[in-house]
Design brief:
The chain contains 1 helix and 30 strands. It has 477 residues and is mainly beta. Strand 29 and strand 30 form a beta hairpin.
Length: 477
């Protein structure tokens, strides 16, 4: 019997046995007790809350002084969602002063959602989400905080702005629902936000990017597709070689078929009209209903010319690697699947990895998934997400580790390279619902943030760090 044929109870039992075998060889699947050591939630964990408000953790980033900023979506506010920020020191300990009130900030910035966060080279914190625009239709919302958590008045006057893809130049105004999903900070202080642009009747959708100047004004915008005539969801953006960008997401191939998509965007926010700068990448692992939905949710750069794409294939964690190829002038020009990526799992195509485990958090309406990816300095790939054990009706935060070539890392889990984690609760035992929303690498050690149900009945943000078998002389990987 192959792994994919095991019933779930048998599979989980084997995973427990494999975890025991892995622990005999290494401890890098264990929660690091030195992290968040001053918290009240047990070794290596902390719960980050703003009261009984059902907080949802969104993202984690390094602060300018080597600590951590954790961003939450907190219900309430004028438009429905508030920004919740916690700052922790490099050891995961809460701050008593120097950031907001007792180390945290709760801000109503007129957002209806909070979707991503980053920190720029000056230590300023940038948060994106939806904000009501003209006619009440959603726009990209951007909010910038100073390093101490206070509003940044040099950004759009009060620290926040909104912009979108509405067309009011003709006789009839056309408004779009714009959904931001990803933000990056440029070295010169500009901000790039990427996401999706939906027609109000959902008849069309394209990826969209807006670049803001350091003062909050619009610098440039562009929207497009990954293949001619196909709807396109924008999920992530990152900067690559020569000042170019890659925007990545999902492309609708047919009624029940989506693939990963990516496209190169030039520094001037232009794309090639012939789509030579775009590509789609299929996993095509069929679901029980015959659909083959591949949704990209994250991208990580091995180097400026090599990218790891992560998401789901029919709700299973899916990963591949692509190459950015130069044109005649040496600038990024085309994209191609990296044949050096071996992959494995249950993938139907070469050079793909697909886990045998289903994860939750896929939203077909928005073409999004919960998989996140980070790369360690040895090239190994760390993936996070949320898994439901249907036999016990429990959700676990999961971490999967692959070798740099996409094969499963047997040292992390010899049968399936995945470990399962429950956040502690007020009652002591592990939560019945934990899921991870983001991951970064701290000296080889994955730092994971997510959301967990407490025994008191509300959800909180959670953070923890795993140990590492890699040795470093400082706190950065």
């Amino acid at each position: 019997m192959s792994l994919r044929e095991f019933p779930l109870p048998s599979l989980l039992a084997l995973l427990v046995l494999s975890a025991c075998a892995a622990n005999a060889r290494a401890e890098d699947d264990q929660v690091d007790p030195a992290f968040a050591a001053t918290s009240n939630w047990g070794p290596g964990w902390d719960r980050l809350d703003f009261g009984s408000l059902d907080e949802t953790a969104v993202a984690v980033a390094r602060s300018g002084d080597g600590g951590f900023i954790v961003c939450h979506s907190v219900p309430g506010g004028a438009a429905g969602a508030r920004i919740g920020l916690y700052k922790l020191d490099a050891r995961g300990r809460r701050l008593a002063s120097g950031f907001g009130t007792s180390g945290h900030v709760l801000k109503d910035a007129f957002l209806s959602s909070v979707t991503d966060m980053t920190v720029d080279g000056s230590g300023r914190i940038i948060v994106v989400g939806n904000t009501p625009g003209p006619a009440g239709i959603e726009d990209f919302g951007v909010v910038r905080f100073l390093a101490d958590g206070s509003d940044d008045p040099s950004f759009a006057g009060d620290g926040g702005t909104g912009d979108g893809f509405d067309d009011t130049s003709g006789a009839i105004d056309v408004f779009y629902r714009d959904r931001p999903m990803s933000v990056i900070a440029e070295p010169d202080g500009r901000i790039v936000v990427a996401g999706s642009v939906f027609a109000q009747d959902d008849s069309d959708v394209r990826w969209g990017m807006i670049r803001f100047n350091a003062d909050g004004s619009r610098d440039a915008r562009v929207a497009g597709r990954f293949a001619a005539g196909q709807k396109a969801i924008g999920s992530r953006v990152l900067r690559i070689a020569d000042g170019h960008y890659v925007v990545a997401g999902s492309s609708l191939i047919a009624a029940n078929d989506t693939d990963f998509g990516a496209r190169i965007v030039a520094p001037g926010f232009t794309v090639d009209s012939g789509y030579s700068d775009a590509a789609t990448f299929a996993f095509d692992v069929p679901a029980g209903d015959g659909s083959i939905y591949d949704y990209l949710s994250d991208v990580a750069a091995v180097d400026p010319w090599t990218l790891v794409l992560a998401g789901v294939a029919s709700t299973k964690t899916a990963v591949n690697r692509i190459r950015v190829l130069p044109g005649g002038g040496g600038a990024p020009a085309t994209l191609a699947l990296d044949a050096g990526f071996v992959g494995g799992g249950v993938a139907s195509f070469l050079h793909n990895y697909v886990s045998p485990l289903d994860i939750t958090g896929t939203n077909g309406a928005y073409g999004t998934a919960a998989t996140r990816v980070a790369l360690r300095s040895d090239g190994s790939i760390v993936l996070s997400g949320r898994f439901k054990d249907t036999t016990e009706d429990r959700w676990y935060g999961i971490v999967t580790r692959l070798h740099a070539d996409g094969t499963g890392d047997d040292a992390f889990g010899p049968l399936v390279p995945t470990q399962f984690y429950e956040a502690p609760t007020s009652a002591g035992p592990g939560s019945s619902d934990t899921g991870f929303a983001d991951v970064l690498i701290d000296a080889g050690r994955p730092v994971l943030v997510g959301t967990s149900l407490d025994s008191l009945g509300d959800t909180d943000g959670v953070i923890m760090r795993l140990q590492s078998d890699l040795l470093f002389t400082d706190s950065f990987d």
